[in-house]
């Protein structure tokens, strides 16, 4: 299971604040609103702590996923219930040998789009 799937289910499980440490050393605490597949985080009621500066209070903040170093979850979070919710369901036509029928090179457009469209037999005149 991917970490992102787990994080996407946390807003449904708790309203406790989480703490996010960024690669630049900033520490952000707030309530997780949402997380998307690139692990971008949306938080509300945020406290932003920059190194050697006073904390800043913000209403909302968006964090780019590749800037996250670590995420600290609250102790009250029931991790097992979040894990059960975040398990992926197996779908009928997923990846694998039975995912798509063999088409032998023929797609929705038939044989259109093959080659440059020049006919046979006649030479090109310039």
Automatic annotation (TrEMBL):
Keywords: Nucleus, Ribonucleoprotein
Chief location: nucleus
Record bears the keyword Repeat: no
PROSITE patterns from the UniProt entry: PROKAR_LIPOPROTEIN (PS51257)
Pfam families for the chain: LSM
Cellular component, GO, one term: spliceosomal snRNP complex
All residue ranges annotated as the Sm domain in the record: 5-73
Transmembrane segments: none
Subcellular location: Nucleus
GO biological process: RNA processing
Positions of the UniProt region annotated as Disordered: 90-126
PANTHER family, A to Z: SMALL NUCLEAR RIBONUCLEOPROTEIN SM
Protein's name in the database: Small nuclear ribonucleoprotein, putative
Protein's organism: Candida dubliniensis (strain CD36 / ATCC MYA-646 / CBS 7987 / NCPF 3949 / NRRL Y-17841)
